[in-house]
Amino acid sequence: MMDAAFSHAVVWLSLMQNDQQPDVIHTQIYWLLGVVLGLLVIAYVTGRLMKRYPDHSLNPAMIEQFNHRIRVWWLMGAIFVAGFLMGRATTIILFGCISFWALREFITMTPTRRGDHRTLFWVFFFFTPLQYALISFSRDTYAQWFGDSSRDFYGVYSIVIPVYALLFIPMRIAFSDDPKRFLERSAKIQSGLFICVYCLSYAPALLNLSLRTSAGEPWGDLDSHLPNAGLLFYFILIVQLGDVLQYLWSRLAGRRVIAPKINASRTWEGLLGGVTSTTVVGALLWWATPFQFWQAACMSMVVATMGFGGSMVMSAIKRDRGVADYGTLVQGHHGVLDRIDSLCFAAPVFYHLTRYFFSQVY
Amino acid sequence: MAVTVSLLAGLAKLLSGSTVRWIDCQPDTCQRIYFANHTSHLDALVLWASLPRELQPLTRPVAAKDYWDRGPIRRHLAKSFNVMLIDRTKVKVHQSPVEMMIREMSDRYSLIVFPEGGRSSGEEVGEFKSGLYYLGKKRPDLELVPVYMENLNRVLPRGEVLPVPLLSCISIGAPIWLEAGESKSDFLLRARDAVCRLREL
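Above: the input entities. Below: the structure tokens describing the complete assembly.
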């Protein structure tokens, strides 16, 4: 299945690679990367030590969960390094593969009927690659094709799924002559495509922006190997931090559970504490972004809140289906969707705020 | 031929995202009959590809000759996977499908059979045909291993050509044998239960 997404994406590789030279990446990114790498090493060593010298006041299942999370972060880090080394196209393809896998988990979990088969085929093999292909086209490609260097494909990729795919899905299902639970089936496929593909694709779409500071100064190294990589990295870092901090706050100070039937471990204290501390950390990292201190604080607050909301929505879907997490859905698979739910909900909001306030919109 | 096999097996595994669970049963080179529910063309291929590499040459899917002998592509596929083709149309006294299977498997091969006799269209496991009973009766030394294939009917349902890459799960359960004095219908019900029970485990 990865191959399928891959071959679709590889077609565009040649289109995009003409303007890429292995260049110096923004120095701030190196700093940020260094700090994160250091933290990851510390976390990794701590996790190993906790496993080797068990402290009986700690729950072993919790330590296992901690170590699993660290492993996932190393994997994310590896994806990032691959992206940095190999450029824009690779990064977008990797995000496309993650979307594809997440959608696979989503649809596996929600029951569909025989009549949805061909619709699903379109969703997996047409709309998903199309969305990432559109994102991968840079402004240069647009200029090459239409002779207009002032635009890119934003006008297409921002509506192709929420308008055209959402119209296409019920149409195709209706043609399959099975009226049973029609609206429910359409909605399931629509939300799967929307959350797993459309929303997540806004994360790599950050690479397309021409960033400006709020004073109108161009920001970042536009000629670099992977422009805006720092901002993408900052965004993912904040989302992950938000996840961890709300978890810690919930464990340490959590009393009032928000919605016990949906998720028994998410509390108001976790939400408030998590969002506040993420805001502080995000603001302190303002130097790696085009934002000023207070702007970085606002961005981080929005991102952390949206991420929390996204995890709640995914919990609700899981409870409705009666599964604990997407990883146990089919044994042996670690749930991708469990790890990216907050990313999916935060990405479009972060993208649009950045686009309207911190980039030159053509 | 080896290329066809590894290519198709790899593709089928990738498309069906299959995980294999061995429940109270371990891979072994002893002679076995794997019997499974049948919902998709991919069933035999995915089950075969899920077995450990050293068991694959020893395990042969059983299929209907009238279907797989039509056209060069089907014939090539059947030959590549060393499929045991059984003629459903010409059943004679010493030429019954069970006799042929026993003769062909000799003391070497294991078989993959689908006792429902054809692909069912939904989640429900259909009635089992009696072949499994006669196999167990004539060769009491064979391990009869139940297999439940989950979600493959959604990956490639009956009558569709293009697959949808969902995740699937293959559960291989503890072997059963024909009990002394067990009637045909009792045994077939028990075998069907053994397959269905894997769904809950």
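Note for the figure: The longest strand of chain B covers residues 143-150.
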